[in-house]
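Input chain follows. Return structure tokens only.
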Amino acid sequence: GGNVGIGTTDPQAFLHCSGASASQYEAIFDNRAGNDGVMILAGNNGASSERVLDVRKGDVAGDITGSLLAVNADGNVGIGTSEPVVKLQVGGSIWASGTNADIILWDAAGTYAATLGQDSNGYGKLQLMNEVGNTITRFTTNGDDSYIRTGNFGIGTDSPGNPLHVAAFGASAAVFENNSNNTAGSNLVFRKSRGT
């Protein structure tokens, strides 16, 4: 009923593994000789930031791929990188799948700040919210409306002075073209704010 120590004579838990050096793996799980397994390194591995968990792919012959998952003492988590400098750092692509699969950003108050993903039909969408969670900017590929509700929008300029500010150098500033066969259509329509 006592504690078991591996590498230590004073185990502090039911199973306590302690490496002889900062770079020694506490555990290696390898199902058969010559086959890659999982190597777990806990504690400081001698890098610039202290690592509390480092999971690598390899075998008893040595490290094969570098860090697969790293958790630092400052709370940063790395996937595919051993030196995460933000709360979540991924060295590679992120694949979100399934119905309404979104990447969601929240502010400190728990309000939606932005969503990037797809709707229930698999169409891509990007939404940016204000401080109370109302959608201000929306882009979608499903044929629904895309819009920017506030602020100025610049094309070719980073200081737009109007709701739509197009700046071009050596080319046409804007081209409006009706690709429909309906000759009754208009290329450009101007309306007052009340639609008259």
